[in-house]
Each structure stands twice: as C-alpha cells, then as structure tokens.
Amino acid sequence: MSTYTALNVPTRFVEVGNIRFAYRRLGKSRGSPLVFMNYFTGNLDDWDPLVTDGFAADYDVILFNNAGVASSGGENAGHRLGDDAGCACVLQRARAEKD
C-alpha cells in the first residue's frame, strides 16, 4: 500500500502519442484501479482529499487531467465521455508503470 495521501502524492506524467497527461496514483497497488474521471474542465486538484483517501484505503486510485486540462497537454476533445479516449491510455500506462 502506498503511504501517499491526496495531499502529498506526487504528480506524474506519461506521454501518450503527442499528449503529456498528468496523473496521480495512490492507495493499494493491486487489483483493478478506480479511475477518477472529472467533469468538463475539472482537474485532479478538484477532488476532495477525504473522498480520494477514503477510497485509497482499500483500492488503487488514479486521478488524472484529461487532454487540454490543467497540467496535461494537447487539446480539449470536447469532453464527451466517448471522446475522452485519453482515460484508457493513461490507465494502461499508469498500471504498467512500476511503483
């Protein structure tokens, strides 16, 4: 289990194609992760630490900024769930990365 909390977990970056995604990972590093998708232009700093830390006590939690939002590069894809393909890419890269 990670000793990080929502307030001290470092922001990491992963390149997918020509887009640099920002993400944070905390909690247990086994099993299927919970990927926190945000609204429209919401970013990974908008999550309530009590919520994310609560889930991280039992799960692997991944928070991320989608393309064109906050510290992630690229262009906004319109922010329809079907257009936010960055989610799957970030999830796969983040899961493959060794903590």
End-to-end Cα distance, whole Å, is 10 Å
Helix percentage: 10-25%
Radius of gyration: 13 Å
Overall residue-averaged pLDDT value: 78
- How would a textbook summarize the main sheet? 4 strands, mixed
The total of beta strands comes to 4
Flag low-confidence runs: none
Beta fraction: 15-25%
Number of helices: 2
Order of helices and strands: EEEHEH
Arrangement of strands in the largest sheet: 1-2-4-3
- Secondary structure category: alpha+beta
Q: What is the 3D form?
A: globular
What's the number of domains?
Answer: 1
Verbal overview:
It is a single chain. This protein is of the alpha+beta class and 99 residues long. It has one domain (12-96). Helix content is 19%, strand content 23%. The protein has two helices and four strands; from the N terminus they run βββαβα. The protein has helices at 49-56, 86-96, and strands spanning 12-16, 19-27, 34-36, 60-65. The protein has a four-stranded mixed sheet with strand order 1-2-4-3. A hairpin with a 2-residue loop joins β1 (12-16) and β2 (19-27). The mean pLDDT is 78.
